[in-house]
Amino acid sequence: MESSEALLARFLALHPKAIDLSLERIQRLLASLGHPEQRLPPVIHVGGTNGKGSTVAFMRAILEAAGLVVHVYTSPHLVRFHERIRLGQPGGGQFVGEKELVETFRRCEDVNAGEPITFFEMTTAAAFELFSSHPADVLLLEVGLGGRFDTTNVIAEPAAAVVTPVSLDHADFLGDRVTLIAKEKAGIFKRGAPAVIAPQDPEPAAVLEAEAERVGARLFVGGQDFTVHEESGRLVYQDERGLLDLPTPRLLGRHQHINAGTAIAALRAAGFGNLPVSAFEEGMARVEWPGRLQRLTRGRLITLLPEGSDLWLDGGHNPDGGRVLAEAMAEIEEKNPAPLVLVCGTLGTKDTEGFMQPFRGLAREVLAVPISGQAAARPAEQVAEIARKVGLRAAHFSSLEAALASLHDTVWERPPRVLIAGSLYLAGDVLAANGTPPR
Prior knowledge:
The chain is an alpha/beta fold. The strands form three sheets. The protein has an eight-stranded mixed sheet, sandwiched between helices. A six-stranded mixed sheet has the order 12-13-17-14-15-16. Helix 4 (98-112) packs across helix 5 (119-132) and helix 7 (178-185) packs parallel to helix 8. Strand 9 (226-231) and strand 10 form a beta hairpin. The protein has helices at residues 4-11, 24-32, 52-65, 98-112, 119-132, 171-174, 178-185, 202-215, 255-269, 277-286, 319-335, 352-356, 380-389, 400-405, 424-434, and strands at residues 43-47, 70-73, 85-87, 94-95, 138-142, 160-163, 194-197, 218-221, 226-231, 234-239, 242-247, 294-295, 310-313, 340-344, 363-368, 394-396, 417-421. The protein has two domains: 4-286, 3-Layer(aba) Sandwich (UDP-N-acetylmuramoyl-L-alanine:D-glutamate ligase), CATH 3.40.1190; 294-434, Alpha-Beta Complex (Protein-Tyrosine Phosphatase, Chain A). The longest helix has 17 residues, at 319-335. Keywords: ATP-binding, Folate biosynthesis, Ligase, Magnesium, Metal-binding, Nucleotide-binding.
């Protein structure tokens, strides 16, 4: 049987650009497939710059804790493409299997008949085909890039459209000002459907609210219509329905409190407000989202570190991601002091300097590494140069393994805390090398 990897490689050749924001090609293919996007369960559509995947993860954990069957579509994947498509099942969803994925890819390829189409358009059409053929109670659908012209934005009547915190990223496609990016993200709002807006900085908040009102969406604004905060070691959520007093989330970092609150608001706005309190409680405790402030406690890479070291992994890669990640590491440092070493690899398309700035005065040193198989990856030497520019001590290495092994050359006052970050592609490399891929 032909592999999904071989088919995916073929899809890359169907359009000269990896990204070409438009809805025309996906609409053509979906029509030829018999409109699977019109045969889906209720859809909660999630866009934003940071926190999309975590917000989806919270919603999935809560819904599955309530016994519902949940489809999930996210991107990019970390290790295998199959991670993007989670097919709901009673008791918990599973990544799509190879055989079914290949059969669906072939059908989409045959129906497309060689017409120009991007990789993401072809694979999203395949995901919709799969979701439409498996019954479920809800589909959690993550935007790929932007919103207005993103391939996922073919859902005419979502149960809710959600925008997580908006900041600068993908400026070459979405604009170089946060207000322009917010307007693109707001493109998923639909007339009559709830528009759930996470707590935002004032500029993007104003744009998102104005766009929601312009299209006639029903607004649910973080900080106004719903609030979330920590109190006495608990997470307290409140809206017009009342208050939920919950355990703090399993996902670490105060930014995850915002994502958890946004997830709860989205579920309530989308018609899932009558879930038992126990489902929200269990959701906070069981939520998982690999590569996002994930502590690696087993695997091959642990054995390369000095004995007693902590190893953490995060896919953060833009300035706002760097800020919330540094805040989270500072909070961990306050509770359990250890010298922080940042192992970093980034893409040339990202603001590496902005990502690293928050670690000044926090990270003891930066170990710059390459990202395998990514033509857009910054050379490790350049990453180290940028780190020095922002005032961080830095060295570069030919591989992740060499960087980790170098920690034995330093005499530490206590075992170091090692954070690997800078790119989701690097996070995927780490999980693969460690032998702990997402499941």
